[in-house]
């Protein structure tokens, strides 16, 4: 239950970040067009593929959320093997997401974007301030850090499950809490995806 | 399975296995389809931006639709995956009511940002010129880079 209140506080943190992004964006006359910034895909360099890579990332995260649901469900049934299997796939999904994000950051860094530098012009062709890359790297970085800690938590859960800690306790409540955290990370991504890539 | 601690608020399995499987499957499909629709709108907005005279109103409308779809996705994740929907009502309320603050929070800050923009446009002509008229020197170079595909 306390997990819920922690997640609520975390929701306010992310909310504050995204709202400050919104404020700054509303106070600007123009803003870089996300479709011109995020149009690359690994192994297809030079091809203009707006939104493709980030949708892949979104789907990875949704699928890993589903496998987490299945892990929690297996925990309810006291099915140790099921928990191990589904947690394992969740971890794979989390790592895949982090890999994608690492690639995207590297790619943007190569194009010259980083905290304090933004090579992308505004949609109306004027020079953009660095607000865009500052917000982008801070918010996706903060989210990526949550994904990372979620993966760590899931690995710990995997080890504890395979050691039979929860079996001896008689319930798999811890898996459920880790699951809540993981779903929350997915939930935040839905909003980050909306604010940075779609709008 | 009974949990000795927090029994009053922690989630109890009410569903049979098949019911559960069906529900998870349904939610997964809904989330995927909604994401695809959002992508569709994203691409529509993209092509509209490319056009000569993009209609401000339509773009705003599409963006609004995408926002609403995202809220729908959030609802499904929270109520089914995080199974908040299966908790007792008071528990739901302690989570949802504080989140109502976001309504005020978003409105207040976005309006504030907008008014700051208008003030600056009115009283700071240099700002207006820099962000509305002057073209970025880098743009041409950036685009040819993309066309030739060297990155």
Give a description of the structure.
- The complex is a heterodimer of chains A (about 200) and B (about 150).
- Chain A is mainly α.
- Chain A is built from seven helices and no strands.
- Chain A has one domain: Cytochrome c oxidase, subunit III, four-helix bundle (Four Helix Bundle (Hemerythrin (Met), subunit A)), CATH 1.20.120.
- The radius of gyration of chain A is 19 Å and the shape is elongated.
- The mean pLDDT of chain A is about 85.
- Chain B has two domains: about 1-100, no CATH class; about 110-150, no CATH class.
- The termini of chain B are far apart.
- Chain B has helices spanning about 15-50, 55-80, 90-100, 100-125, 125-130, 140-150.
- The radius of gyration of chain B is 24 Å and the shape is flat.
- In chain B, α1 (about 15-50) packs antiparallel against α2 (about 55-80).
- Chain B is built from six helices and no strands.
- The interface between A and B is large, with 73 and 71 residues.
* Number of DSSP strand runs of chain A: 0
Helicity level of chain A: over 70%
Mean pLDDT of chain A: 87
Strand content of chain B: under 5%
SS-based structural class of chain B? Answer: mainly alpha
Number of helices, counting only DSSP H or I runs of 4 residues or more of chain B = 6
Unreliable stretches of chain B, pLDDT < 50, 5 or more residues?
1-10, 138-151
Oligomer: heterodimer
User: Total helix count of chain A?
Assistant: 7
How many structural domains does the protein architecture of chain B include? 2
N→C terminal distance of chain A: 34 Å
Total separate domains of chain A? 1
CATH class descriptor of chain A: Mainly Alpha
Strand content of chain A: under 5%
Quick structural overview:
The complex is a heterodimer of chains A (199) and B (151). By secondary structure, chain A is an all-alpha fold. Chain A has helices spanning 2-26, 34-37, 52-76, 80-110, 131-163, 165-169, 173-198.
């Amino acid at each position: 239950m306390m997990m819920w209140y922690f997640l609520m506080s975390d929701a306010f943190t992310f909310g504050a970040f995204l709202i400050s992004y919104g404020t700054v964006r509303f106070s600007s006359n123009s803003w870089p067009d996300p479709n011109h910034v995020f149009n690359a895909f690994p192994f297809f360099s030079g091809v203009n593929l707006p939104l493709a890579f980030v949708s892949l990332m979104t789907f990875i995260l949704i699928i890993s959320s589903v496998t987490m649901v299945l892990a929690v469900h297996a925990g309810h049934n006291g099915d140790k093997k099921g928990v191990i299997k589904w947690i394992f796939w969740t971890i794979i999904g989390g790592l895949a997401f982090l890999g994608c994000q690492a690639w995207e950051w590297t790619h943007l860094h190569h194009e010259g974007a980083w905290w304090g530098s933004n090579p992308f012009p505004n949609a109306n062709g004027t020079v953009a301030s660095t607000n865009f890359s500052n917000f982008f790297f801070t918010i996706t970085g903060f989210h990526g850090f949550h994904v990372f800690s979620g993966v760590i938590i899931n690995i710990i859960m995997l080890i504890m499950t395979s050691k039979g800690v929860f079996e001896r306790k008689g319930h798999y409540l811890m898996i459920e809490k880790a699951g809540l955290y993981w779903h929350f990370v997915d939930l935040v991504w839905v909003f980050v995806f909306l604010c940075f890539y779609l709008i | 399975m009974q949990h000795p601690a927090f029994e009053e608020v922690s989630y109890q399995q009410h569903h049979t296995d098949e019911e559960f499987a069906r529900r998870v499957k349904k939610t997964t499909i809904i989330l995927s389809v909604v994401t695809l629709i959002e992508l569709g709108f994203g691409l529509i907005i993209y092509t509209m931006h490319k056009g000569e005279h993009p209609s401000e109103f339509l773009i705003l409308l599409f963006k609004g639709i995408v926002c609403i779809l995202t809220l729908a996705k959030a609802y499904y994740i929270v109520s089914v995956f995080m199974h908040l929907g299966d908790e007792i009502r008071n528990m739901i309320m302690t989570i949802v009511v504080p989140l109502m603050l976001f309504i005020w929070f978003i409105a207040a800050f976005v309006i504030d940002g907008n008014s700051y923009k208008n003030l600056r446009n009115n009283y700071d002509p240099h700002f207006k010129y820099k962000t509305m008229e002057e073209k970025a020197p880098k743009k041409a170079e950036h685009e040819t880079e993309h066309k030739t595909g060297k990155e």
